[in-house]
Amino acid sequence: MATPVIIFDTTLRDGTQGEGISLSVEDKLKIAQKLDRLGVHYIEGGWPGSNGKDIEFFHRSKELNLTHAKVTAFGSTRRKDSKAETDPNLNRLVESGVSVATIFGKSWDFHVHTAIQTSLEENLNMIYDSVRYLKSQGLEVIYDAEHFFDGFKNNPEYALATIQKAEAAGADWVVLCDTNGGSLPGEVSDIVKTVCSKLKTPVGIHAHNDCELAVANSLAAVQAGARQVQGTINGFGERCGNANLCSVIPNLQLKLDYNCVSEQQLQSLTSVARYVSEIANVNMAVNQPFVGSAAFAHKGGIHVSAIMRHAKTYEHIVPELVGNKQRVLVSELAGQSNLLVKAQELNLDMSNETNQTKQIIEKIKELEHQGYQFEGADASLELLLRRAFGDIEDIFTMESFKLIVAKSPGDSVVSEAIVKMKVHGETVYTAAEGNGPVNALDNALRKALVQFYPDIRDMHLSDYKVRVINEKDATAAKVRVLIESTDINNTWSTVGVSENIIEASWEALLDSIRYALIGKTRIEPQADRQAQLGLVNH
Amino acid sequence: MATPVIIFDTTLRDGTQGEGISLSVEDKLKIAQKLDRLGVHYIEGGWPGSNGKDIEFFHRSKELNLTHAKVTAFGSTRRKDSKAETDPNLNRLVESGVSVATIFGKSWDFHVHTAIQTSLEENLNMIYDSVRYLKSQGLEVIYDAEHFFDGFKNNPEYALATIQKAEAAGADWVVLCDTNGGSLPGEVSDIVKTVCSKLKTPVGIHAHNDCELAVANSLAAVQAGARQVQGTINGFGERCGNANLCSVIPNLQLKLDYNCVSEQQLQSLTSVARYVSEIANVNMAVNQPFVGSAAFAHKGGIHVSAIMRHAKTYEHIVPELVGNKQRVLVSELAGQSNLLVKAQELNLDMSNETNQTKQIIEKIKELEHQGYQFEGADASLELLLRRAFGDIEDIFTMESFKLIVAKSPGDSVVSEAIVKMKVHGETVYTAAEGNGPVNALDNALRKALVQFYPDIRDMHLSDYKVRVINEKDATAAKVRVLIESTDINNTWSTVGVSENIIEASWEALLDSIRYALIGKTRIEPQADRQAQLGLVNH
């Protein structure tokens, strides 16, 4: 039997300390449900003593019917020179109605003197009183020893004394925090071993990523005896973030044979990671280990021909174990073997022999020569292959567009787009404004299509990149535009190339919408909307 | 004396295997110069046997006058069942003119059978012959043992035999590669120790980040005896990337007391990391350890009040050691000392004390908050400083512009720009076409100015980059445009920011031309040209 390791998720609390991360109560409730299905054991929902949004979360989390995870609220030890029973912060934890409280206290003598400015003795009392009071209220108590490693390195006796106080008061867990993220795996391992030899209470680890070592430190702590890991989805968190549970869990489970979640739950890891990024409205790094879209993507021709013989040649695990998949990037660096694998993914029969295959390869070579790059534009490549195989119908065709960008003295810049297109044989004329030329074109285009395909209302452009291909004469040279689009389930990328940045953007926009429409249901625009849309029957 | 660790940078080779990373020869040359100043010991520039772009890089790198780093070219061992002396790949290395060759060979018996499909014996010969041949050509040889850790775990005797062959043939370094990125620090440590006990040749480590452990594995290898670390700036590289030198170097040097680069060189780390991201046109993660803009940013109220008492309370190192800085509020200023240096360069008296200096710093903070970034836009910064010191006169002012981009059925896209401006008090109206909207604006603008300042005929735009700053809603978000311009003597960069890509480009174009006009002589347009120019006297 594999040794169990308990997973404590703090995406909703420490994760929101990350720059640019902000979650509404609704967001938090949605994420909590996903975390529960992923199989984490604790969900730290917030700090009820610090803001009202968090109090509402704890109130509403009771309606979630979580099947697996316990919700826990965060707070600090009582204030100095006061009573735990009347401490507002501790009483907020009790009032929040959770069954588990997580409180932090000081381990580092320097912090006791400098940050909270009290005596070493009073700090010990603050820890003891706070844990004991929460236990007396029937709560499970997780004690987070803030700055434990820095404290231990500076004054081991005192650091140990603080967690022994927490143990004496009845804490259910003692979690050692590398709050500043400055410790190295060797130190973490040694210190956790020492602590485990001194305590009966089970020990946990809470690591930060300031040295790019949070995952390594978490693994080192578990190998040294820790049985709980605190971290966040995608490593969100203050400064450089917390230990990334999307890497900690598969490493513990697939590489070190610990047991964190079930096999099925592990297979949801990639979708949970992407979902949390989506809700938090941040772009996930494509190269994120295990769950990133490039984590099992192959570019070099040598690698690709080898993985076709055997995936293990260049993949450290089977991607499906974490719900991810292999991708082959089609690029100038790669041979045609990449393309064959891509066609297989789409169930298109593209054996090495036929004329059709040769034509497709010639076409792609020609496009890459013109400056297209498909490794960052999966959706454009898929459209190209599907078109070549007659696997897709063009549901709209473009007739013309006109774009006007004007600035008059004293006014801000105005962008207008006028688009004429045929949708299912009907001519549609639309015009729209936008914050910029591409936004105006996007608005006009979607205005024309949304009445036929209401689903495209959910999609939006999530990234836009421009690169000059031939840099000799920049504004007269060709540019490549990459557009990334997102809806509730997917993210896809498209490419456009032209000497004209507007035309290149336009091309990538069209591909993005064409891809979004694959498999979508068409509806008939209501009669009273037809006039507004400028529908003209031919 | 601290033990030296040699830094081998492969940003230009393995780094470009990362999804979305593509570097021109010019880009590579620029980055190589920065790497040299950072103090890396080897710069792996590419694979001359694989593409012509890399051959050009090696040719041109000789003009760089690098003061510190050696440039090395990458390749593989000879083909099976052939001679090293006639192997095209090996001969490309020789012809590239570098003094150091880096070649990889197979260590994993599974790969010998599956990927290159030859006998274990022949693989040993391939390694021996290739290293010996390159040595006989007078080259320093770094032998990269591909998949060494997977190979060792599967068949330790054979894996050791491969590197012993490389040693016997005279390799100067044996570098152990965790090519699939699947190994853990404990394994890496044990295996490196074993290898170091069997070889006399110095050993290196080449780690990949598939388990989010590349930095930890690199440190573990050094602590076990490795004396060279291969990696990339910002961890660029295939799949999840290579070991991130921006974390490896400060960890080795500041935490473990090894010696990689000088103290001064370490202080350039943040600016090198940002420069490389800028050139590669990818967004750097704000939470990147050590060098990210959020690496020392404090959000939580408790943390902020503690760091105001003492920075050490929530910072694991002094940020200036790596050229980064603490951020508390929204204060993005890229090093006020940089600003002082810049002002000195321009002979502007900008001591730390005056009101004027404070106002300039406030202005720059405000602009950086809006999304401007002056690190990649020296000329815009210079204009801003000169303007603040009254050191420059505005020789033209803009009144209005209008841009029309249109595509009709069957026609190509047409871009027209109409510009109204005042030059030395005279109103000038011009219109021009272009290959794209920015080119049309550039043409109209220069048409208006060239009669007054014929010298600007020599300048042209040499690079044009666009970045979405706030990625929440891509085409409606702010964009930053960086324009690089070149004339016979100089290259300079300018920046523009707006929600509208055209307006941002326009702003950067104006700065580019204003910069070009500094110190240029004005002439009076000839009478017969005035009508053509649309000059109107007011």
Give structural notes.
Chains A, B: One of its GO terms (biological process) is L-leucine biosynthetic process. Chains A, B: Pfam families: HCS_D2, HMGL-like, LeuA_dimer. Chains A, B: Keywords: Amino-acid biosynthesis, Branched-chain amino acid biosynthesis, Isoleucine biosynthesis, Transferase. Chains A, B: InterPro entries: 2-isopropylmalate_synth_dimer (IPR013709), AIPM/Hcit_synth_CS (IPR002034), Aldolase_TIM (IPR013785), Citramal_synthase (IPR005675), LeuA/HCS_post-cat (IPR054691), LeuA_allosteric_dom_sf (IPR036230), PYR_CT (IPR000891). Chains A, B: Pathway: Amino-acid biosynthesis; L-isoleucine biosynthesis; 2-oxobutanoate from pyruvate: step 1/3. The structure is a homodimer of 538-residue chains. In chain A, helix 6 (148-154) packs across helix 7 (156-168), helix 8 (185-198) packs parallel to helix 9 (214-223) and helix 17 packs parallel to helix 18. Helices cover 39% and strands 20% of the residues of chain A. In chain A, strands 1-2-3-4-5-6-7-8 form an 8-stranded parallel beta barrel, surrounded by 9 helices. Chain A has a 4-stranded antiparallel β-sheet with strand order 11-12-13-17. In chain A, strands 14-15-16 form a 3-stranded antiparallel β-sheet. Chain A contains 19 helices and 17 strands. The first copy, chain A, has 3 domains: 3-261, TIM Barrel (Alpha-Beta Barrel), CATH 3.20.20; 297-388, no CATH class; 396-516, Alpha-isopropylmalate synthase LeuA, regulatory domain (Double Stranded RNA Binding Domain, 2-Layer Sandwich), CATH 3.30.160. Chain A is elongated and about 80 Å long. The model of chain A has no long low-confidence stretch (mean pLDDT 88). Chain A is an alpha/beta fold. Chains A and B meet through helix 4, helix 9, helix 10, strand 9 and helix 13 of A and helix 4, helix 9, helix 10, helix 13 and strand 9 of B. Strand 11 (396-407) of chain A pairs antiparallel with strand 9 of chain B, so a sheet runs across the interface.
